[in-house]
């Protein structure tokens, strides 16, 4: 009887080890898995927005950059570049209140952000940006 109980005990332990060995590793957190693809999507939108902007298609840049939600989840430098292109595009199309709002977003990400000298001296967005900095 003792031998039978001992064998059952050993069998239970062995079964426990086998079941533990067969467990799947824990799934990665959603944020960890999504971040690289989110950054790729945001960067692709930024690249396309920059192409549209450089081609003088400010409405196209606005459409791409303002409808890609991943931009707001991307790395801060990607967010800043996208919001800066949006600000410039809005200013270029006469939508200074939207331009202003984009600069506010930039400064909320990086309070020390500054435009380059040539950007600061631009007759449209330079004054809009400086009005926020005061």
UniProtKB/TrEMBL annotation:
Keywords: Signal. InterPro entries: TssQ-like. The keyword Signal applies. It comes from the Bacteria. This is Lipoprotein. PROSITE patterns: PROKAR_LIPOPROTEIN. It comes from Andreprevotia lacus DSM 23236. Residues 1-26 form the signal peptide.
């Amino acid at each position: 009887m003792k031998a039978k109980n001992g064998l059952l005990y050993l069998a239970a332990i062995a079964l426990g080890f086998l079941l533990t060995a067969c467990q799947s590793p824990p799934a990665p957190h959603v944020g960890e898995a999504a971040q690289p693809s989110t950054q790729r999507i945001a960067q692709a939108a930024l690249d396309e927005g920059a192409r549209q902007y450089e081609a003088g298609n400010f409405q196209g840049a606005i459409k791409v950059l303002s409808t890609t939600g991943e931009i707001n989840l991307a790395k801060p430098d990607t967010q800043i570049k996208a919001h800066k292109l949006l600000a410039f595009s809005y200013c270029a199309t006469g939508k200074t209140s939207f331009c202003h709002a984009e600069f506010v977003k930039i400064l909320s990400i990086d309070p020390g952000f500054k435009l380059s000298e040539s950007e600061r001296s631009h007759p449209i967005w330079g004054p809009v940006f400086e009005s926020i900095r005061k």
